[in-house]
Design goal:
41% helix, alpha/beta, five-stranded mixed beta sheet, two-stranded parallel sheet, 12% strand
């Protein structure tokens, strides 16, 4: 994976000393990405030894943020984060992983990204109507973007998950707990602006994500759900390395 990280930093004309102030800014979109990454302070959500073991070194996390912010639609949401005005709000899952895959496989940053996943956690308002109202408001904020905005309150997922997927689940206690159940190890990721910099959460680290590996996270999904995800993604990113359900 070190070779991949080196290639990413090289493509962005950023040396591995993580000195953003000396980075070149002659690539389209790089200036904006560097602006947000220049003051990066990661808030480690797991112990340091565990982070390193799972591929969560600061360098990998830095490369993750730099690559994600090359996606103009994601960057537009990032620029207007305060306007979202949602409790415990995160960017998560597919839009982040797919932007990384695009860097990995040489596609444009927005290639194949069908929606931007915004999640929040509000256990005091579990009404579907409230969630829909928030989604409508935020889509209106970003009506000019070419990518659809998807907004979900993770505090109410247990109310509809069983009906949609066939297996009931208990309520989540937080957005991070929800991310822990996302369908694959490479898509179980989230990021948001924090008080001291960017907060990044990668439930399984970055190894599978940067290596382009699809591995099932069996904590919640079924074999059929995993197969459906793989079929959709492999059609867009055929160079992904797919591990079967039994191999995961």
């Amino acid at each position: 994976m070190d070779e991949i990280i080196t290639a990413i930093f090289s493509a962005l004309k950023l040396d591995r000393t993580l000195n953003f102030s000396s980075a070149k800014s002659d690539e389209a979109g790089w200036t904006k990405a560097a602006e947000f990454c220049s003051e990066l302070t990661l808030i480690w959500l797991r112990s340091e030894p565990a982070n390193k073991e799972k591929g969560m070194s600061e360098e990998y996390a830095m490369a993750f943020e730099v690559c994600v912010l090359q996606n103009g639609s994601i960057r537009a949401v990032w620029n207007a984060w305060e306007d979202l005005d949602l409790p415990d709000c995160w960017l998560v899952a597919g839009c982040l992983a797919q932007t990384i895959w695009n860097t990995r496989f040489g596609f444009s940053p927005e290639y194949g990204v069908s929606d931007i996943d915004i999640v929040y956690f509000d256990p005091d308002d579990l009404k579907e109507e409230s969630e829909q109202k928030q989604a409508k408001r935020i889509r209106q904020l970003f009506k000019g973007l070419p990518i659809r905005i998807d907004v979900k309150n993770e505090a109410r997922v247990h109310l509809w998950y069983g009906t949609k997927f066939g297996n009931p689940i208990p309520p989540y206690a937080s957005v991070k707990e929800a991310i822990d159940t996302f369908p694959t190890t490479s898509t179980a990721v989230g990021m948001r602006p924090g008080r001291h910099g960017t907060e990044v959460y990668a439930a399984f680290g970055f190894v599978d994500l940067f290596d382009g590996v699809l591995r099932a996270n069996k904590r919640q999904i079924t074999r059929d759900i995993y197969r459906a995800k793989v079929s959709k993604w492999i059609a867009r990113w055929p160079e992904l390395k797919v591990l079967s359900w039994d191999q995961s």
